[in-house]
Amino acid sequence: MAGRLHIAPLDLERLLPDLVAETALITGPNLAPRRPLSMIRLDAGRPRLVTAFWGLTPPWLKVLDHAPHCARAEALQTRPMFREAFTARRCLVPVSGVYAWKPQPRFKQPFLVTRVDRGPLLLAGIWCRFHTSLSQHHDSMALITVPTNALLAPITDRLPAVIEPGQAERWLDPQTPPSEAQALLGSAPAELLGAFMVSRKVNDPACQEPTCAHPTGPMLRHSVPQER
């Protein structure tokens, strides 16, 4: 799944030139669910950076701990928890990496999954709004996960879906039919993502040291056969 994120300072305006950023991007070396997170949604026809709670909380949800922080792409159009949000309220979460844990005989080894060029990633998500009064509300979101590609499958079976910047507005636009939005949710190309081992101190969500994201081994990446 995607229970921890690495978000470094990112040049979002360069990534999405039309972005309206009235709030600062929430950053951190080891961000966990059940806390505020920056997301991008379409507002008056333009992508806008806003803050939301990481854990989808529709109005009928009774227990906050039951708020899902991830939604499986295969269930978006069938589960009532996700269906309405997927149809009308899609979002993007800008990150620099996603942590994943590879099972070992005696422990789980954490990895940081990033772009091979260490550039920013736009992760697919859905959001909802819960009105606490006629004038007050809070927004919440969940990331959308898809099966991993063959390169990363030994580390984890699922990762958040990545939306390329050129497809961002199409993904965010509620006028995009769900079938077309669903088609954007595929496993990342093998050459896009890599992963490297990091310190097990990232296991503690309270640990916010920059060293959480420092490589402790080489990057696992797709190798392109050289022509002879």
TrEMBL record:
EC top class, in one word?
hydrolase
Sorted keywords for this record are: Covalent protein-DNA linkage, DNA damage, DNA-binding, Hydrolase, Lyase, Protease
- What superkingdom heads the lineage? Bacteria
List, alphabetically, the Pfam families matched: SRAP
- Sorted alphabetically, which InterPro entries does this protein's record hold? SRAP (IPR003738), SRAP-like (IPR036590)
State the EC number(s).
Answer: 3.4.-.-
Q: Which SUPFAM superfamilies match?
A: BB1717-like
- Protein family according to the UniProt entry: Belongs to the SOS response-associated peptidase family.
Q: What is this protein called?
A: Abasic site processing protein
